[in-house]
Amino acid sequence: MATRDSKDFPPTGDVDIVFISSDHVRYGIHSKNLEAGTGGFPPVDSQSCLGVTSEPVPLPESSSVLDLLFPFIYPMDRPKVEEMEFKIVIELAEAAEKYQVYSAVHRSMGTRTFWN
Prior knowledge:
Blueprint: E1 4-5, E2 17-20, E3 25-29, H1 31-37, E4 57-58, H2 63-69, H3 86-98, H4 102-110
Parallel strand pairs: 1-3, 2-4
Antiparallel strand pairs: 2-3
């Protein structure tokens, strides 16, 4: 399968870490946002092997999940979780909990009332 770049998080410019989804979409992310907005990603050292010049770090989640997760670590509009299908909300909640993206965890778990 061919690799493509995320439309919202392209691996260009001043990003210092590149992730790749299970369906081969590359995401350029700023380590400062990971440090400030998550607790589940390891710290990125500018001298580490996680820099832009190295291979992307593979994540087991699909691009449909990462497209929803990464906006929660940036100051941008957040996905409208209450308008999503239950299955995708569960996948988002699992990834948010795994990577400790607490703003996404709270948002996705708060949506459970819509299905109860």
